[in-house]
Write a structure and sequence with these properties.
The chain is α/β, with parallel strands linked by helices. The chain has helices at 32-43, 58-64, 76-84, 104-113, 153-159, 169-175, 249-262, 267-270, 283-296, 319-330, 346-349, and strands at 3-9, 26-27, 30-31, 48-53, 68-71, 91-96, 119-125, 130-132, 135-137, 143-145, 149-152, 180-184, 212-224, 228-230, 233-235, 239-241, 299-309, 335-340, 353-364.
C-alpha cells in the first residue's frame, strides 16, 4: 500500500514551558522530529515523508535530514493543508511530532483496518469519571483520540477545504460524512505536551556527553569616518570597518564558530551581505538571533575563546569590557578575549584591517 507519512512539527511548543522547543529535544544525537521520522520509517516503507517546520527553522531541518520539509501554517490544520499539497499517494498517515513513542503494531493495525473506511483512528478508553458541563456522562461512550491517523488522501483533502478548525483528521472527515474506523490505541503513544511528559520509555536512550567544537574566522579592512565596534563595544578609533553591517569582525567570527559547532552552516547563509535588511545592522542583534536559535534547538554554550589580531587600535584597555559584553550576549560565563599583533606582517601588520579567530564548545542541554 502506497502511503505518505506527514509529521506535523511546526508548532511553537508554548505549553511545554521550556526554552528548548519540544521538537528539538535531543534523543541521543537526533532532534525529536528526526527521531520520530526515522523511527516510523523503520516500521514501514513509506512512499514519502513530509515534515512541516516553522519557517525560521526550515533550513535547519533541511541541513539535518533528506526528508521533504514544508513550511507550516499558523495552526495544525493549516500546516496539514500545506503538507497535503505535496502528497501523491492514495493514503496519508498523519501524526504529531509530540506523539513520539507510537508502537510499530499501531502502524500495522491502522493499515490493516483501513479497508472500506475513509479514516482509521487509534483511541484509548476513558478510565476516570467524565464530567461535561457539570454533568457526569457515561465514560463508556468517550473515546480519547490519538495519532497517527490513516486516511484516504482525497477525502482528507476535501475535508480540509473549510474555515472550521479541527483538532484532528477524523473530526474533519466525519464532518463531511466520511466513514471512520476506531481501533484501540496505546498508552505508549502518549503525547508530549507539558514539561515532564518527555520522560517516555522510548526516549530514555543512553545520553552521551556530546561536545561540539566550532571555529570562526573573519577579517575586515578599515574604513574612515565610521565607528568601530568589536565584541559589541565601541572602540575609540579614527576609522571603523568596511562591511555591509556595522562590521563587528569579532562578533562575526563568533557567529561562524557557533554555527560551525551546531552544524548550522555559516553567517552568510543566515545574514547575506546583499540583503538590504542587514545594511548597517548592529551585529549584536545578529549574535542574539544565533544564540536564541541554539537555545530553542537544544544547545547550550560551554565556553568561548576569541583572538583579535590587530596592529591598531590597541585593545588592552577594552578586553575586560569586551568579555563582559560577550558574556551578556551569549549567556555564557566562560569567555576569554585575547588580543595580539601580526608582528607587522601582511595587511594586518600594515594597519589595513583586523582579523579575528573564535573557538567555541557547545553541548546539548540536559532535557531528557
Amino acid at each position: 500500500m502506497d502511503i505518505t507519512l506527514v509529521i506535523l512539527s511546526a508548532g511553537n511548543s508554548n505549553r511545554f514551558n521550556s526554552v528548548t522547543k519540544k521538537q528539538w529535544l535531543r534523543i541521543g544525537n537526533k532532534p525529536l522530529w528526526k527521531f520520530v521520522a526515522d523511527r516510523l520509517n523503520s516500521f514501514y516503507h513509506f512512499k514519502k515523508t513530509i515534515i512541516t517546520a516553522n519557517k525560521d527553522e526550515i533550513k535547519l531541518y533541511k541541513m539535518l535530514s533528506d526528508y521533504h520539509i514544508v513550511e507550516g501554517g499558523y495552526s495544525r490544520q493549516q500546516s496539514l493543508k500545506k503538507a497535503i499539497k505535496n502528497v501523491k499517494t492514495e493514503y496519508i498517515l498523519v501524526t504529531d511530532v509530540a506523539r513520539a513513542c507510537v508502537p510499530k503494531q499501531i502502524i500495522l493495525n491502522l493499515i490493516e483496518n483501513i479497508k472500506t473506511f475513509d479514516c482509521v483512528v487509534p483511541y484509548l478508553k476513558a478510565v476516570d469519571t467524565i464530567v461535561f458541563e457539570n454533568e457526569t456522562i457515561d465514560r463508556e461512550k468517550v473515546k480519547l483520540i490519538q495519532t497517527p491517523q490513516l486516511s484516504k488522501t482525497d477525502i482528507l483533502q476535501k475535508a480540509l477545504e473549510t474555515d472550521i478548525e479541527f483538532t484532528d483528521d477524523s473530526s474533519a472527515i466525519k464532518a463531511i460524512g466520511g466513514k471512520i474506523n476506531y481501533i484501540i490505541g496505546s498508552e505508549e503513544a502518549k503525547k508530549i505536551t507539558f514539561k515532564g511528559d518527555e520522560k517516555l520509555s522510548c526516549l530514555q536512550k543512553e545520553r552521551k556527553n556530546y561536545i561540539f567544537t566550532g571555529n570562526g574566522y573573519d577579517i575586515h579592512q578599515f574604513e574612515e569616518n565610521k565607528k568601530m565596534y568589536l565584541c559589541g563595544i565601541e572602540i575609540n578609533s579614527e576609522f571603523g570597518f568596511k562591511a555591509h553591517s556595522d562590521g563587528d569582525v569579532a562578533i562575526h567570527s563568533l557567529i561562524d564558530a557557533l554555527l560551525g559547532a551546531s552544524g548550522y552552516g555559516d553567517i552568510g547563509e543566515f545574514f547575506p551581505d546583499n540583503d538590504p535588511k542587514f545594511k548597517d545592522i548592529d551585529s549584536k542583534k545578529l549574535l542574539k538571533y544565533v544564540v536564541d536559535l541554539l537555545e530553542k534547538t537544544g544547545f547550550e554554550i560551554i565556553n568561548i575563546d576569541i583572538t583579535i589580531i590587530a596592529e591598531t587600535p590597541k585593545l588592552k584597555n577594552y578586553k575586560k569590557e569586551m568579555k563582559k559584553s560577550i558574556q551578556t550576549l551569549t549567556k555564557c560565563e566562560n569567555v576569554n578575549i585575547k588580543a595580539t599583533t601580526n608582528e607587522k606582517l601582511d595587511s594586518i601588520g600594515e594597519k589595513k584591517g583586523v582579523a579575528v579567530i573564535s573557538t567555541t564548545n557547545i553541548t546539548y542541554k540536559e532535557e531528557i
